Amino acid sequence: MKKIYWFEPWFFLFFGAFHLHRIWGLIDRNSYAAFWIDTMENKGPVYFILMGVLSGLCLLGIITFFRNLHRNYLWRWIYICGGSYLLFDLFAIATDLGFWHDIIIAMFDVNAWYWVLVWGGFIIMGLLVFILGISLMIKRKQNS
């Protein structure tokens, strides 16, 4: 039988809120870019706390996907696709992978013509994921 675990709505609510914070990047490009570049390059407490939480949630999601391999909901593929991407991203940032650093610096180019497309895309994705989290919370409550 399919089951929505207690952490799953919170997983999507957290990731949705995390992506929705990028609205800051549309309001103030310079401070947004400066904050995140500084956070990634200096690897202080905010970086390690965020890296730990994001990695832990991704691993929890991936484990959940594989533990329910023959009875997964379709939305659990987000754990595999998004989680794998995010774990690679965190690994690449942590190890200062050259080509990835260049991509990130280009993403944070406040004068780039694609700024609104990149960060707007993340915001839309965040909104959809946040709505999924709310939906899962409601479904879980109805099934209890």
What does this structure look like?
This protein is an all-alpha fold and 144 residues long. 78% of the residues lie in helices and 0% in strands. It is built from 7 helices and no strands. It has helices at residues 7-20, 23-27, 29-42, 45-67, 77-94, 98-107, 115-143. It is globular. It starts with 6 loop residues before the first helix and ends with a helix. The mean pLDDT is 95.
* Radius of gyration, taken over Cα atoms and rounded to an integer in Å: 16 Å
In terms of DSSP E residues, the strand content is: under 5%
Distinct helical segment count: 7
Q: Spans of 5+ residues with little confidence (pLDDT < 50)?
A: none
Global outline: globular
Structural class: mainly alpha
Major sheet details: none
Q: Report the span from N to C terminus.
A: 14 Å
Order of helices and strands: HHHHHHH
Mean of pLDDT:
95
Helix content: over 70%
Total strands: the figure is: 0
Could you outline the blueprint of secondary structure elements for this entry?
Elements: H1 7-20, H2 23-27, H3 29-42, H4 45-67, H5 77-94, H6 98-107, H7 115-143
Structural descriptors:
144 residues; 7 helices; globular
